[in-house]
Amino acid sequence: AGQNVLLPVLGTVFQSYIPNQQTGKITRSDIAKQVHSPNVPHILASIQDVNVFDALSSLISHLHLLWELVLTAEPIVVMASSPTECSALVQALTYLIQPLPYSAEYRPYFTIHDSEFKEFTRKQYNPPCVILGVTNPFFTKTLQHWPHTIKLGDSSSIKTKLRKVGNTKLLDTAPGVYTQYKPFLEKDKTIIKKLHNGIRTDRPSEVQTAMVKRHLLELTQSFMIPLERYMASLMPLQKNISPFRAPPVPNPFNPEDFFATLQQAGPHLTTGIKGDWIGLYRNFFRTPNFSAWFHQRHSNLTNKLHALQLEALAESDLKKWSIGKKEVEIVDMVLKLREVLKSNPPVADNTRTLLARRLEDLNCVLPEDMKSILNAAT
């Protein structure tokens, strides 16, 4: 489930719990269970727990628009009067699609001295998939070709208007979200109303943040669960796994096949939000967010197939298999087993033990001179 490590820093020892990729979201109570020492004075569930609501309070009406922009890794510029404000909003934006990791690039505070300044301000190319936080008014003109700009105003303002991106003159003064993006999905007006009521009644920002995070978590999960389900269906049947052949590869990802599954098990059924979900998926498939997720899931499937093939090999009767085989085929299998055992394969300890026994079985059927050659080679 993860690993506990001790990190000595300036006379203080930090006991840290590092989860693995399959652990999922870690809470304070989860960490408390992992900490072995009764003398730990304080437990931090996270080094940085972003207060999403404080950063987004003036943009709550556009919460679902921002979620789509971040999900599809659109280029976004955040303009604010201070590094604290712009970096807080950039950080909050990357949190909107949790538990899906934001895999594009983001710069909480970008200046004219950054090495990518020329690249990001070059108008003859499409802007990269980056969220930039800036404070220098110079960027109002040099980044006006970026498709989405969030201009923050006075921190006391409650609402920020949605403005067409063509009104670049307004960028000098007027706060707003400047974009021509047309959302694929309708707003969930219920959560927006609840959050605005919370602002009027001075509901604590921690409670507001929890509401925002829970709503967007459920929205992202509803979006990703059909993909997770479809990805699992790409696993070849176990009967196609042979102990004596290379493991099969996952079946190819076909967007049209995936779309065909949405009518019966799509996100519109769990969220109640109407809109062009397929169009949103099509845009998502072109993003670094999808690429990172897909490569991780594909790697997991590949490793699982490799493990199943090794388990089948560990359970096989190699003495029986070797009957009638040429010596070179048996030697190839011996070398393969040696390489597998040396590479620390992703299988259980008992499977490793069985693989070692299969290696011994093959050594028994080899002639003495070949055993000597193989032993000398090691």
Automatic annotation (TrEMBL):
PANTHER family found in the cross-reference section: LD41638P
GO cellular component terms, semicolon-separated: recycling endosome
Source organism (scientific name): Pectinophora gossypiella (Cotton pink bollworm)
A GO term, aspect molecular function: guanyl-nucleotide exchange factor activity
Domain of life: Eukaryota
InterPro entries: DENND6 (IPR024224), Tripartite_DENN (IPR037516)
UniProt name for this protein: UDENN domain-containing protein
Domain UDENN: 1-295
